[in-house]
Amino acid sequence: MDYDVLVVGGGPTGMMLAAELRLAGVRPLVVERLARPYPFSKALGIHARSIELLELRGIHDRFLEGAPLLSGGHFASLPVGLNYKSLETRHPYGLYQKQVDTERLLTARAEELGTEIRRGHELTALAQDEDGVTATITGPDGEYRVRAGYVVGCDGGRSRTRKLAGIPFPGQEPGLAVLMADCEFSGELPEGEGMGPLRPYGVIRRDLRAWFSAVPLFEPGVYRAMVFRYDHVWPDRDQPVTEEEMRAAITELVGHDCGLTGIQWLTRLTDVSRQAERYREGRVLLAGDAAHVHFPSGGPGLNMGLQDAMNLGWKLAAVVNGWGDGALLDSYHTERHPVGRTVLRNTRTQCALFDPDPRLDAVRETFTDLLRIDQVNRYFTGLGSALDVRYDLPGEHPLTGARMPDLDVWTPDGVRRLSEYFHDGLGVLTGASAEKWKDRVAVVEGEVEGPAMLVRPDGYVCWAGDPVEDGVGLDAALRTWFGPPL
Ligand SMILES: Cc1cc2nc3c(=O)[nH]c(=O)nc-3n(C[C@H](O)[C@H](O)[C@H](O)COP(=O)(O)OP(=O)(O)OC[C@H]3O[C@@H](n4cnc5c(N)ncnc54)[C@H](O)[C@@H]3O)c2cc1C
């Protein structure tokens, strides 16, 4: 083998995955088609669960530094917003951060850990056999082959890896066409009454089933402007948007172009929504947009990619390192596919509610009223932040399958946090010992409130209880998630 794992795509998912693999001593190669990082920022935010995951690796401060914190978000641009302050986490906020910066920090992390990254190199063909995969890569000096144990397609919504592996990508065809610009306005913007807490400017044109909104970004005077048109399909989604097209679209809805100027980026979007039927096909795996695409309502995409990578990284490394089995690797699909399905449902719901068709007024008003109910607001906030993700893991204890609460640990040297014990990417055990798994599970020497817990490297509890009363359960969980004893 030239490498243990070939990671196709050096976007946020690929870089996060490469770092996780390196942390576990695995040798990944990242191939990225673009010679230089994509200069524009699709995503603008990092959610609470992603911040927690970065904290598990001790790198969240780099992301928090200088980034504005958001105390709330929106659901389908309804007038009642989501309250992040209600979240039970050490990070009850969202982070405003441009995707270019997120990617830069993730790339730096992967490089620090010794990842080999080849830019300007594209996967063009793929074959797998019993022992590994053979990938054909086209680089600046021509075509060459790479042999690796596994390949992970982190190559975005149009994933070549997914297509070459023959994994179906079923879903919903687009019915919403959106033009988007990061830009400035020299003229007056219309007040966007009733367009939600984050969209102070805009116009709703029910007659056209269309709307325009301009969301101020944190850079002074810069907006993310969007024109939504329902019942509209782009004849060619890849056709570049021109300034004239954007100007005409705004003028049609608002009556004037609001002095559109200072355009930084123009693009077109749709509400196409698809999910890979399988996240694993033998030695080929998919993560991030390669596994799921959807409209960016609430901004879950990049976040879900990081969370996929965090779920997959340690499992794939365990298999490469010889103590993980096929069942452990299959649990990646079993756990993450339902999460993706729920996120797709959430974004489709929001796309349906964005539709200004007057026949949907009653539904929008009902959802607005529901959002005033704390528990409902909390439900959508938990969903949007991914803090409520739970895996269906074996075990009776209510904590099993939930994300680990970041509790205080009382040690002779002072108070630490449980999250600090995850920096090396091992599992963590509190309130018990696991001598025979000491190379894979770190034991917390200190007092932690509540039951003893066995936590996986991705921060999910896989056993909780009393180690004396349920020693058999603890032993079973150690074997399931951390392989045979030494
Ligand atoms: C307008 C907009 C706003 C968004 N806002 C948010 C938001 O606020 N929050 C959020 O979480 N998400 C948001 N998203 C979604 C987010 O941008 C994506 O989910 C995220 O970029 C996915 O990361 P990825 O690494 O999986 O894929 P990508 O970012 O698509 O990266 C894939 C990489 O693979 C490379 N590649 C492709 N094919 C090959 C090949 N054959 N060989 C080698 N390399 C290849 C590509 O060049 C690319 O660099 C938004 C998206 C859009 C369009």
UniProtKB/TrEMBL annotation:
Q: Which Gene3D superfamilies match?
A: 3.40.30.120, FAD/NAD(P)-binding domain
The FAD-binding domain sits at 2-347
Keyword presence, Cell division: no
Its keywords, alphabetically, are:
FAD, Flavoprotein
Reading the lineage from the top rank, the first entry is Bacteria
Q: List, in alphabetical order, the Gene Ontology terms for molecular function in this entry.
A: FAD binding; oxidoreductase activity, acting on paired donors, with incorporation or reduction of molecular oxygen, NAD(P)H as one donor, and incorporation of one atom of oxygen
Please give one Pfam family short name. FAD_binding_3
Which coenzymes or cofactors are required?
FAD
> What protein name does the entry list?
FAD-binding domain-containing protein
Which species is listed as the source? Amycolatopsis orientalis
